[in-house]
Amino acid sequence: MNTSPLFEEPGPRGRRRYRMFEALAWAVIIIVAGLAVWTLDRNGAFDAAAWKPFALWGVWRQLGIGLLNNIRAAVVGMLLSMFFGCFLGWGLLSKRKIIRYPCRVFTDVFNGIPVLLLLFFTSLVLPSWGLPLPDFWFLVIALSLYSTAVVGDLVRAGVQALPLGESEAAAALGFSGLQSMWLILLPQALRMMSPGLVSQMVIVLKGTTLAFVLGGYFDLLRAATVLGAYFSRSLLQVQVIAAIAFMLINIGLSQIASAIDRKEKQRYGVQPVALDE
């Protein structure tokens, strides 16, 4: 395999220029960060009174309840996406056009529609169809529609990345096409694309914050807004705490995805499957 770089290594003058740009960039970052800290301090963001509410157990309890609701919606949405995404991936690989074309249309449509529009659709259209569901399910359905399209494409890419001999061996053993897919190809594809699935979980978790527009689902952002309205001096502080909570969970999930990625490389010596750019 050709591993030559796309560009030539910079010479001494190029390295000096890169170091100069790097130093300039760090200087700009430090100056901007310093101005931000100075402005926040000038407006009392670091005053003890602004952080006093966080000494109350009730504040952390409300934030915890909101975060658990975000996680609950993300887990349910991802499980539904995994279930329906496997069927969608099988449809995308079908040799029958009557199955493959509708699956491709579904994938392209729901990959291209913003999740916020899907959320408005579920919360406004479904009740008019006689389905007055709780806001939790409006959020889960919107996230599942989008994520199912992504998982379906991951399944398709994972199965197509497997050696052709896998399906040929299954056929030689007397497996039907459906049995070969669900008993042999799909389990291997799921293992290969596991880093992509964990990364998709990060996207789904961040998408749960869109429940704020519904107004009836008590997620972390809603909890932070309510607490910020009650403790008016702590509005910025509580939003920062909420952002840090999301950041820590997403970093943890990203680390899990990276660990799975490294494990798959060590096991197979290849890059796990990802969606085509």
From TrEMBL:
UniProt signal peptide: none
CDD domains given in the database record: TM_PBP2
Presence of the UniProt keyword tRNA processing in the record: no
Main subcellular location of this protein, as a coarse class: membrane
Limits of the ABC transmembrane type-1 domain: 67-257
Residue ranges crossing the lipid bilayer per the database entry: 21-40, 71-93, 105-130, 136-155, 197-218, 238-260
Keywords of this entry: Cell membrane, Membrane, Transmembrane, Transmembrane helix, Transport
Membrane among keywords: yes
Subcellular location: Cell inner membrane; Cell membrane
Family membership noted in the UniProt record: Belongs to the binding-protein-dependent transport system permease family. HisMQ subfamily.
Protein's UniProt name: Glutamate ABC transporter permease
UniProt organism field: Candidimonas nitroreducens
